[in-house]
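Morning F.,

Quick status update on the modeling queue. The single chain you submitted on Monday has been processed. Sequence for confirmation:
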Amino acid sequence: LDGGDIEFDFNDAEEDGNAELIPELQAKVIGYKTSVVKIGGVAVSGGSTTGGNTGTGEGGEGEGGTTPGTPSVDGEIIYIPQDDGTTKAGLQITGSTSDNKATPVTIDGKSITKTLKIESATSIVYTAPADKDVELKMYLSVGNIKYNGEVKTFTTKEDGCFIFTVTITKGTKIELTKKDGGYIYMLKLTPVE
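Structure tokens below.
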């Protein structure tokens, strides 16, 4: 699906009503060996040492409140508070998470129940790689945020969230801070082709 690397042709007439395991598909999935060598500059165990690509990576995790280094961003980096706490490669995130204040939302098929609180102590700092521009897309509960100290207001909504999107020029450092209190559900960084 969408450029994946396991191919299997379903017979709709036979499989639409089938709730049983399909042995041929099971064998393909179990026997699958990834060709991914690195994700966000971090080696992936079990990957091939020849060929391969950098995948749609997340990078390695660092310690909270520190910057683990600027990733190459060959693929998309996604920060989700419930999965990542307050750390993610290339991001310096200061703030606290909440799992009981925000209304759960579903983004890209994933139920998000834990958020990064937007409060006076919250800060997200990111430096784009030196060789490419990066698009930042944030899913928030409020329609504003401070971007490098300047208030940005936005009305676009997607998956029940306000969406803030901006292109960060290569090598540029940005900081996101509070304008009004709220929650950040997800953050995506994608290289601009």
